[in-house]
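User: I'm preparing a small set of examples for a lab meeting where we compare how different chains pack in three dimensions. I only have the primary sequence for this one, and I'd like the structure in token form so I can line it up with the others. Please keep the answer compact; I'll paste it straight into my notes.
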Amino acid sequence: MRLYCEGCQYPQNTCICDHIDKVKTALDIIIVQHEKEAHHAKNTVRLLSLCIPSTQVVCASDNSAMAALEMQCSHKHSALIYPSETSTPLENASATMSNQISTLILVDGSWKQAFGIVKRNPWLGGLPAFHFTNAPDSNYLIRHTSVASALSTLEATAYAISCIENTNVLALHRAQSALQKMWQGPQSHRRKVQ
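Assistant: Understood. Below is the structure token output for the 194-residue chain.
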């Protein structure tokens, strides 16, 4: 039987508690998570929640939780980080617009899963939506993706926070790096760097 750390909830032999530091942000971070991601050992939302404990994670298949989230999110103060035909570059958001954002919503799942979540919840698509044009390359190499510019949910959140608040988010990147160093999966599961 595998033993788990009570602090980080990772297996004891991959415990990353010593690498977790809190990130202070005035933003409310909400992650709408695909149900398959919730139990994926390599998802970065757990890391995000360790560094920003106020992070709210909502399972996309929980209809009552999604309905409550819809009521909670104001069109004036909430922003969806999701590339679409109507999204605008977050880097180009005016200072006034950035100051109005108090809630960041990100969708956690594969591109196909994220598309399905937004399609099933049209109110998400009705929120002001932003995408990235100058985000750094992903450093998350223990999961495969076919999208060259894809970021982990943690990386996307860190970049969005830094664009809006200019807050130091290095603790998030350090936590992700620590997880990758401790990860004991086979090399074939790692993303190939080009």
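A couple of notes for your slides: Residues 23-183 form one domain. The longest strand covers residues 28-33.

User: Perfect, thanks.
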